[in-house]
Amino acid sequence: MGGPGDPPEGSPEGAPGGGEDEYRSVVFDESFVRAARLQEFSARERIADHAPAVRRRPPLRRGLSRQALVLVLLIAVAFGTAIYMGVRHPYQTPAAREPIEPLRMTVIPLAPEGKVPGTADLANLYEHSPAAQFRTGAEGVPLPASRRTAHFSDSQVVSALSTAKDYIVRSALDPEVLTGGEVRAVRLLLDPDQLDQFDQSFTRPTADGRHAPTGWLVRFDPSRAELADNKVRVQGTLQAAEADASTLEVTADHTFVYALRATGSGSGDEDEVSLFTLRRELHFRFDRDDLRLHQAQLVVSYVQAGPLSCAEDSTNHLRPLLAGQTAKEGGPAGTDPYATGSATALCGTLATSAQPRV
Fold first, then answer.
1. Residue among 346, 308, 345, 313 at smallest CA distance from 327
2. I need a surface site. Which of 30, 41, 60, 70 has the fewest CB within 10 A?
3. CA dist., res. 306 & res. 279, Å (int)
4. What is the spatial distance between Cα 156 and Cα 149, in angstroms, rounded to a whole number?
5. Is-contact 275 142, C-beta < 8 A?
6. Residue-wise pLDDT tens for the chain (358 aa)?
């Protein structure tokens, strides 16, 4: 007997692939069934209500889905917000920045009264000089305890002091800078509005109080002197104060002591070394852009340095007098770079007390 079920021995050979294959082309998926306009009542419904076998279904809504409507609404809101912000944005237009004051610089050479003292024993040279207790390198430029001001936070005051310290270290302690080499590391710390003055100072140096390389940094004439010791002795102070509601000022006052020898003399124990002392007072200014970008406005640079000859030009490089040398001419009065007073002459005499006793 044939029946709708499969025979025990399976489908006979040559059969068209079973009952499923016969109706495969007319199988309806769920979406098709739901979309049908006619729906058959169940047997219970037909008995109870004497209703016809089928009923007509309401047509499906063909509008946008809820997700699509939400997406369109969000796009419209975003577009409207963008237009509003473009016309009336809540941010204030930055105020026009005041012109930055150019750097004013003074470099005063200090001439020795006699021969420059020197010795081959560098440790003994330091020991018998006023720099005996000075720290070396960046350790000699410690940051002071800082406090917030009326318009600047603690972190902003620290940022100003740190930038000033970085400038001092790069411009007066970096051996590459000291020996007349690369100055880019110093330039990067300056406010962009001072870069033209800085660049002109190195391309066209002039003793006009505005364009002397030695007003921006410390560097020795490499044809005359070289460092006998990279560990420069330093002592001084940093102070921060609020100039107004938009400006911080930092004053740096440091004395540097360099050990020098004649260029090309080698590093033998018999080569005499002398000390070169430089007192440098710098005035920095910072607005909020400078604090954010870690840069500074250098507005005053005041330098006393010796032993130097007043007859030598110290605009482009410092040309130190070395061990055993004497100045061709001196200045009008003795000046001690270790003292805190300010010199008034354009050339001074290096006080004997400022030199090592050897």
1. 308
2. 30
3. 9
4. 9
5. no
6. 455 555 555 555 554 555 555 555 555 556 655 655 556 666 666 666 555 655 565 555 555 577 777 888 888 888 877 777 765 544 444 456 678 899 999 999 999 989 999 999 999 999 999 999 999 999 999 999 988 999 999 999 999 999 999 999 999 999 999 999 999 999 999 999 999 999 999 999 999 999 999 999 999 999 999 999 999 999 999 999 999 999 999 999 999 999 999 998 765 555 899 999 999 999 999 999 999 999 999 999 999 999 999 989 999 999 999 999 998 764 445 566 676 555 445 888 888 888 888 7
Three-class DSSP labels, the chain:
CCCCCCCCCCCCCCCCCCHHHHHHHHCCCHHHHHCCCEEECCHHHHHHHCCCCEEECCCCCCCCCHHHHHHHHHHHHHHHHHHHHHHCCCCCCCCCCCCCCCCEEEEEEEEECCCCCCECCHHHHHHCCCCCCCEEHHHHCCCCCCCCCCCCCHHHHHHHHHHHHHHHHHHHCCHHHHCCCCCHHHHCCECHHHHHHHHHHHHCCECCCCECHHHHCCCECCCCEEECCCCCEEEEEEEEEEEECCEEEEEEEEEEEEEEEECCCCCCCCCCEEEEEEEEEEEEEECHHHHHHCCEEEEEEEEEEECCCCCCCCCCCECCCCCCCCCCCCCCCEECCCCCCCCCCCCEEECHHHCCCC
